[in-house]
């Protein structure tokens, strides 16, 4: 895989598309050359002309850090995961799980007192959801989920003191 290539994986059908590009208006998908004209309507909407066909493309959500994208093309919705040459190399070496953002537990970043527990066992959480509030050095700190997952166990109770690196929450 060259530096100007990506693999787009439709997360619903698992179909993979090898995408390469020469410049901003031409490239290839699965070794089939293409050229496009792209007009940016706003930050999330584009008008694309490819092979004399018109496409309205809207980015519904983009999570570059997780390489996940949800788009709508002429009313049809698609979810994609993008992989670059580094992801492909990790896969070939059998190390792709090391790049995963999946975690199994949340630890206290500092000693403090648990003021509130916002999550519950069995709850599905998304990246950025507040899990609990920890008071440390007279400041309230919201501990947020670094990834999506399901809460398996809450290892502490509200009002208790915790030490640095103490396990607070476990995920499935």
Describe the structure.
There is one protein chain. About 5% of the residues lie in helices and about 55% in strands. It is mainly beta and about 170 residues long. It has two domains: about 5-100, no CATH class; about 105-170, RNA polymerase II/Efflux pump adaptor protein, barrel-sandwich hybrid domain (OB fold (Dihydrolipoamide Acetyltransferase, E2P), Beta Barrel). β1 (about 5-10) and β2 (about 15-25) form a beta hairpin. It is elongated, with a radius of gyration of 22 Å. The model has no long low-confidence stretch (mean pLDDT about 85).
What are its keywords?
single chain, 172 residues, mainly beta, OB fold (Dihydrolipoamide Acetyltransferase, E2P), eight-stranded antiparallel beta barrel, 16 strands, 55% strand
Order of helices and strands: EEEEEEEEHEEEEEEEE
Distance between the termini: 34 Å
Strand order of the largest sheet: 1-2-3-4-5-6-7-8
Work out the helix count. Answer: 1
User: Unreliable segments (pLDDT under 50, ≥5 consecutive)?
Assistant: none
Oligomer: single chain
Helix fraction by DSSP (H/I, runs of at least 4): under 10%
- On the 0-100 scale, what is the average pLDDT? 86
Structural class, by secondary structure, is mainly beta
- The structural domain count equals 2
Report the principal-axis shape: elongated
Count of beta strands: 16
Strand content: over 45%
Gyration radius, in Å: 22 Å
The main pleated sheet reads as: 8 strands, antiparallel, barrel
């Amino acid at each position: 895989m060259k530096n100007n290539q990506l693999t787009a994986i439709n997360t619903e059908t698992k179909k993979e598309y090898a995408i390469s590009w020469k410049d901003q208006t031409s490239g290839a998908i699965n070794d089939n050359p293409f050229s496009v004209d792209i007009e940016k309507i706003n930050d999330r909407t584009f008008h694309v002309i490819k092979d004399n066909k018109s496409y309205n493309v809207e980015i519904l959500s983009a999570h570059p850090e997780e390489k996940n994208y949800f788009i709508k093309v002429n009313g049809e919705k698609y979810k994609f995961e993008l992989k670059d040459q580094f992801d492909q190399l990790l896969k070939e070496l059998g190390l792709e799980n090391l790049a995963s953002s999946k975690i199994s537990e949340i630890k206290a970043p500092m000693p403090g007192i648990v003021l509130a527990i916002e999550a519950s066992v069995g709850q599905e959480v998304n990246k950025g959801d507040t899990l609990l509030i920890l008071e440390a050095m007279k400041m309230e700190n919201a501990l947020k989920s670094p990834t999506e997952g399901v809460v398996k166990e809450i290892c502490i109770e509200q009002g208790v003191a915790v030490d640095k690196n103490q396990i607070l929450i476990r995920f499935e």
